[in-house]
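Weekly structure sync, notes
Attendees: PL (lead), two postdocs, one rotation student
Agenda item 3: pending single-chain targets
PL asked that the sequence for the first pending target be pasted directly into the notes so everyone works from the same version. It is reproduced below exactly as submitted, 81 residues in total.
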Amino acid sequence: MEPNHSGATTVMPQDVVAHIDQKALRLSALLREIDNNPIELESALRDQLNDILEMLAVRIAATRALLLRPYLEFEGAGSAA
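Predicted structure, written out during the meeting:
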């Protein structure tokens, strides 16, 4: 993703997750298309594509966890008082 250098525009974390989700869906659709219409790919290339999809899934999960973190910290602070 491109860094945002504009001070006037604030990107919400939910928007970042939505953007990543869209990219993941597009990549998943492309990989499904490859599976549905087999073309000769070297096994190394297929493995690399699978690794990319797995890394993207990990990134999405981590980003979602970070989105929930402020809420969880707030909940924890409220119950400690």
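Discussion points:
- The chain has two helices and no strands.
- The two ends are 40 Å apart (CA to CA).
Action: rotation student to compare against the earlier draft before next sync.
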